[in-house]
Amino acid sequence: MVTFIVELAAMVSLAAVLYILISILPRINDSEIQKVTSGLSFHAVVDYLEKADELIASFFIKFLRRVRVTILKLDNTIGKKLNEFKKKEKNGNNENPFPKNEAPKEE
Question: What is the pLDDT of residues 20-61, one digit of tens each?
């Protein structure tokens, strides 16, 4: 319960900070931004940056999809193993798949 309260307080404080930042954004003048971006070379650089951004985004999406598929395959494998253990347990075969480490017998 304590962790929930701490997490809730953190989220509320984050929301407050974002609200303050969003309320400040309209105060920025667009004329200052246009002075900086008026050069011809800036537009050429922006085109390359947009292409690079699209390339990185597509790579990241493909990577995340592959990770997702891998995690789902792992989940299916674990589920199958758990079902096998349940079937062995129901059949009366109580062999422990993970034997305990027993101390060696002293003579």
Answer: 888 777 666 666 666 655 555 666 777 888 888 899 999 999
Q: How many CB atoms lie within 10 A of CB 103?
A: 5
Q: Where are the domains of the chain?
A: 2-25+39-90
Length of the chain: 107
First and final C-alpha spacing in the chain:
54
The Cα–Cα gap between 85 and 94 comes to: 9
Most confident of 9-18, 47-56, 97-106: 9-18
